[in-house]
Amino acid sequence: MARPTQPDGTTPVLTKTILFWLGFIGILGPMAIDLYLPALPAMAKDFGTSAATVQLGLATTTIGMALGTFIVGAMSDSLGRRRPLIATGILMVLGASAASASMNIYWFLACCLVMGISASAVQVSGRGVIADLTEGSDSTRAFSFFSSIVMVGPIFGPVGGVLLLSIAGWRGIFVALAAFALVGTIAIWSFVPESLPVAKRHTHGLLATLKAMTGMWRNSVFSWFAVVNFTAYAIMFTYLGTCSLTIQVELGAPAWVAASAFAVNGAAIVLAGLVAAALAKRLSSVAIVVISVAGQAVGIAFLGVIVALNALSLVSIFIIYAIICFSVGIIFGPVTSLALTHVRNASGTALGLLGLVQFVIAAATSVFVGTINPSPAMAMLIIGGTVVGVAVITTVGGRAALRRDPDPAQV
Predict the structure, then answer these.
(1) Which of 68, 80, 151, 380 could bridge to 121 as Cys pair (CB 3.0-4.6 Å)?
(2) 199 and 255: one domain?
(3) Does residue 258 sit in the same domain as residue 122?
(4) 241: CB partners within 8 A, 6+ apart
């Protein structure tokens, strides 16, 4: 596969510096939500409304993320990766700055929409750079490292939010987010080259983009591994929706115990990405996916045994969620690489499609978690068991499809 060339005739290579800054600005995705979570009560007081109303900012941000992923993913296939990265980074600077000056809830919600669009857009464009510059096991390692860097956001976001809230108030949180985005945007402008040559860009409009997305589902390798990817996100959002409730409501532990669980499991996800990158040197991407799905199955089975024996405890729930989170963390890099095997010529559009469905899955999972069973642990068991079953089936299907139609970079 020919690599894009720069104006000086050189061919860009995905260096550690480029990968770091792509991950750095990709952190804006989780940071756009996690950073201000501790400030919800203070913001509600300033706006003269309830904390539940301010929480609508989370839903608005998620809607923006879905839109940004869909629109900018396809746009990056026609404009290249660098310009959307820089433009949406600037958009985050403006959106976060405006949020810091919000005078009412409506202003704030509009800013959340802007921040959501830009937060997801920098991620999908950044992943597009990785897809352009890597193949095979190199792609798996790069996507795994990228995921590990991005997952730093959920670990330190709430902690950073608490510190900023105590020092500068809730408005200072958004000033810091704008500054973070500005640093990342300047770094992208300085260190990240254009990875998609003009000759490989597509100029199709919206209808053609939708047609291209429909066509991607006909590629069996993409469709099977895309669904595996969706199951990983479903498990992740089921965990996010049940962990705190299981610990605080079902087991009666204080909030700091739940916060500790999130920190431990976030660290497990980051570590898992690094482990996946190391495994990619020795194992195929399919083998790593199989290991991940097997680990998820072990975690859910362990939960089933504990629930059946009525032996739920803090120790058992910490172990169960750590197993599940570590197993899920392994899968993000290799499954993304596998899904893109035959659609790298339109990787921005493909990543946009994956991202759009991921956010739909996140929204649907949030609804099911709250309604499927009064017990959070049982909700995790029912949804998790179903999703892992789908993951097993689709992993087998994806493996068979890849054998029939192997990666051209590996033949």
Answers:
(1) 68
(2) no
(3) no
(4) 365, 366, 369, 370, 376, 379
> Which residue in 332, 359, 98 sits closest to 228, CA to CA?
332
Give a yes or no: residue 240 inside a domain: yes
> Domain residues for 359?
218-404
Tell me if residue 15 falls in helix, strand or coil. Answer: coil
Say whether both 371 and 247 belong to one domain: yes
Query: Are residues 301 and 337 located together in one domain of the fold?
Result: yes
CA 134 – CA 18 distance, rounded (Å) = 13
The model's pLDDT over 356-387, given as tens digits with 9 standing for 90+, comes to 788 778 767 766 776 777 788 898 999 999 99
What are the helix (H) ranges across 309-375? 314-339, 347-371
| Residue labelled with tokens 């254009």 | 194
For residue 366, how many other CB atoms are within 10 A of its CB? 17
pTM of the model: 0.78
Q: What is the pLDDT of residues 19-50, one digit of tens each?
A: 889 888 888 877 877 777 777 778 888 888 87
Neighbours of 203 (CB within 10 A): 8
Indicate whether 51 belongs to any domain: yes
Tokens of 91: 């958009």
Start-to-end CA distance of the chain, whole Å, equals: 12
Radius of gyration of the chain (CA): 21
For residue 339, the domain's CATH number is: 1.20.1250.20
How many domains is the chain partitioned into structurally?
2
Residues 150 and 240 grouped into a single domain: no
Half-sphere exposure of 250 (CA within 13 A, CB side): 22
Q: Cα 257 from chain centroid?
A: 25
The answer on 144 and 276 residing in a single domain is: no
279 and 382 part of one domain: yes
Helices 40-47 and 152-191 meet at what angle, rounded to 10?
Answer: 80
Residue bearing tokens 């408005």: 171
CA distance 334 to 112: 31
Looking at the structure, tell me whether residues 84 and 232 fall in a common domain. no
- The distance from CA 67 to its chain's CA centroid, rounded to whole angstroms, is 15
Tokens of 150: 């991005």
